[in-house]
Amino acid sequence: MSIFAKDEAGEVYHTYSSYARGLEHLLGAYGVLDLTPKGRNEDGLSFTMAWVRHHDRYAAPARTGTR
C-alpha cells in the first residue's frame, strides 16, 4: 500500500509505503486471530496468508453416494 499527498501547487509526495507486513490493521480477520491461543498459526507456510482461499478454489468435496 502506498499513500500520496498533493499540495496546493500540485506537487505529489509519496508519504507512506508498506509491503507484506504492516497492513494487518486493515484486515479484520487478523485482529480476531491475534486474540486466539494459536494466533495466526502461519509457521511453516510458504508465505503469510497462504491459508486464504477463494471460495471456488477449494478441493472438491468427497462424494458419499447419497443425496
Major sheet: 2 strands, antiparallel
Order of H and E elements: EEH
Structural class: mainly beta
What ranges have pLDDT less than 50 throughout 5 or more consecutive residues?
A: none
Quantity of strands, as a count: 2
What's the helix count?
A: 1
The fraction of residues in strands falls at 15-25%
Distance between the termini: 47 Å
Rounded Rg: 20 Å
* Net shape: elongated
Give the helix proportion (percent range). Answer: under 10%
Description:
This protein has one helix and two strands, in the order ββα. By secondary structure, it is mainly β. It has a domain at 24-53. Strands 1-2 form a two-stranded antiparallel sheet. Strand 1 and strand 2 (12-17) form a beta hairpin. The N and C termini lie far apart (47 Å).
Sequence-ordered SSE layout with sheet pairings:
Elements: E1 2-6, E2 12-17, H1 28-33
Antiparallel strand pairs: 1-2
Summary keywords:
single chain; 67 residues; mainly beta; two-stranded antiparallel sheet; 9% helix; elongated
Summarize the model shown.
The chain is mostly beta strands.
